[in-house]
Amino acid sequence: MGTRKTGEVLNPGDALSGHLTLQQGAAYLNCSVQTLKRRIEDGNLPCYWLDQRTRLVKRADLDTLVIRRIVRR
């Protein structure tokens, strides 16, 4: 299995515990869903489509996003 690009569709069987919905990711980072959507749109956070309405993010990508923002300060 190759690497997935932002916006690529995941098969339902691929949705493992390492993937979170935007709502779950926002709760994990204690931020808003809109903040995650902005990070996705500006290219700082890759996302994956589960179906036409559901986007997923990897927990590891969320952790990387936080670490990058801490190091930049």
Beta content: 15-25%
- CATH architectural group: Orthogonal Bundle
Secondary structure: helix percent: 40-55%
Order of helices and strands: EEHHEEH
Q: What characterizes the major β-sheet?
A: 4 strands, mixed
Number of domains: 1
| Shape summary | globular
Overall radius of gyration: 12 Å
Overall pLDDT:
83
Cα distance spanning the termini: 36 Å
Strand order of the largest sheet: 1-3-4-2
Oligomerization: single chain
- How many extended strands? 4
Number of helices in the DSSP assignment: 3
Q: Which ranges are low-confidence, i.e. pLDDT below 50, for 5 or more consecutive residues?
A: none
Report the CATH topology name. Answer: Arc Repressor Mutant, subunit A
State the CATH class.
Mainly Alpha
Polypeptide structure, described:
The relative contact order is 0.22. The protein is globular and about 35 Å long. The model has no long low-confidence stretch (mean pLDDT 83). It is α+β, with helices and mostly antiparallel strands and 73 residues long. A hairpin with a 5-residue loop joins strand 3 and strand 4 (55-58). The protein contains three helices and four strands. The termini are far apart. Helix 1 crosses helix 2. The protein has one domain: Arc Repressor Mutant, subunit A, CATH 1.10.10. The chain has a four-stranded mixed sheet with strand order 1-3-4-2.
